Amino acid sequence: MSAQGGGGGGKSRWGSLLSQAVAGVEARLDTILAEEDQPKPTPSPTPSQQSKPSASTTVEIRLHEDSIGAQSPAGAVTELQEDRIKQLEQALEDLAVQQQEETHNYVEQIDALQAKLQYLAREATGSARKAAQEAPAGSMEKKLAEKDQQIAGLMEEGKNLASTEQKLRTIIKSLRSKIGDNEKEINNVKTSKGKAEQELEAMRRKARRADDLEKYQEELHKRIGQSQKEIDALKSEGSNKDKTIADLKAQLQKSAEDKEALSKKVNEEALAKERNKVRDLEEQVSDLKVEKDLMVDRSKARENELQEKAERAAERARVVEVELKAEIQVMESKMESMRVMAEEVSSGAMGDSQAKLLRQVETLQTQYAIATENWQGIESTLLARISNLEKERDEAQHRESEMRKKAREAALRAKRHEEELEDTKTQLSTMQETVKSYESQIEALKTKAEEAEVSLASVKTELEQQKTACPTIEALPAAPSIHPFERQDTFDSAELSSSPKQIVQDMVSVSTVAAGPSVQLVEKLSAAIRRLETEKVAAKEEQTRISSQRDEARAEIVALMRETENGKKAAEEVTRLRAEVAEVNERYETTLELLGEKSEAVEELKADVEDVKAMYRDLVERTIK
Length: 625
What we know:
The chain is mainly α. Helix content is 89%, strand content 0%.
């Protein structure tokens, strides 16, 4: 009873310790969750907390100050402010990571304490249950054990309630964090809205600047209109421009013809290359098909041969088995007769029966020698067949390895072709983009040339009008002092003093005595026209080169696509051949298994024969003795 009382005291002490541990854990959990749930510092913070605000509040204050600074009329945020914002964001991220690690550590500690509590509760319940079972009915120890068991059950229930409460608190915490994230997103949206308003203001300023530029452009157009009135001096260059335009048109026509011829040639070469590649691939496919047919025929022939050999071996094994069984029966009958004879000899009849026994022993020895010779012949034939089958298996494995090697090479070729096709596709896209850019440049040059032609036509019309309006000016003498801006043209046609055009040039120079800047403007315009013409020629050449490259790329892409298709077909053929080889291997394995079973049966028969021989040997030795 004292021991039981001591056990009951220990159990009550365990219950008190468990209740204290549960209370401590719950208090610690309450403090941790209260600290995490508090959005602001406590009214009585530590000196370090009083001196340093939280990182999130500092970041919000800095961001608010930066947003106010961005909305100020000064303009954009400086690089120093951006660096400071980045540093604060990095510090905020580090603090968040540190807080997450601390929460993980707390959760792990709580889980460990819960596991300990569960273990202690289980031990308490177990000990209480044992004490209740061991204690006599109606005694105080029985009652105390039942109370301890009830206390353990209540503690377990309290533990479950605490775990559910913890889960609910974690859910509340996650919801609060989501609310905080939503508030942060709202603040981010507000800041982005402020930035958008600033960008809108900047765009408005740009629009005002664009209006000012349009006004300035209109003034420039007016000045250009005034300067166009002074282009009467362009008649001497008009004829040269006509010639150059005609030459350019002829060059364009010639380049177009050259382009067509070159494209035809490139297409023919690409077509020839493609045909050669297709022919080579068809030859390769035909070779592979022939090899496949040969392999299939060989495998079928080998399979039939192996099946026939297996059937013959099975038939021979059955015949040998029947013969051995017959011999065993004969040996058993002889053994029975020998046993009868031995009994007769042992009973006293020793005369002629001993001689008969000796003769029978001799006949048995001769039969045994004959049987051993037959068995050795059968064994040698079976071993030869096994060696032949092993050789055939090695040859089949070698062929299978060669086929796998060919399949791997075909797969690698197909993969390489696919990679080349991808590279050519990317190159084609870049080439198409460059072609589009060059085409846009050519269109711009064409528009500029058309504008130059229109301006030239207008100059011609104005010149004709002035010619009709002032017919008497043609008779004036040409003063050399009035031509300070005469120059040699780039097209080698300025030497026209002996032609009638010199009179018109003199007329233009007389009409522009007081217009020195207008002559400079004309020179600038002529230089710009010549530059545009050279750019036009260069653009045409570039267009022809790009078109030829595009045609070549298209031909290469077509060839690669066909090669990839052929590679895919070859890969499919290889997979099919692999499946056929696997099927042949399975059949070969089945034949080998059948042969192994037959060889096992033969070995068993050999063992039986050896046992019979041993029995006969023992019987003969006994009879001789």
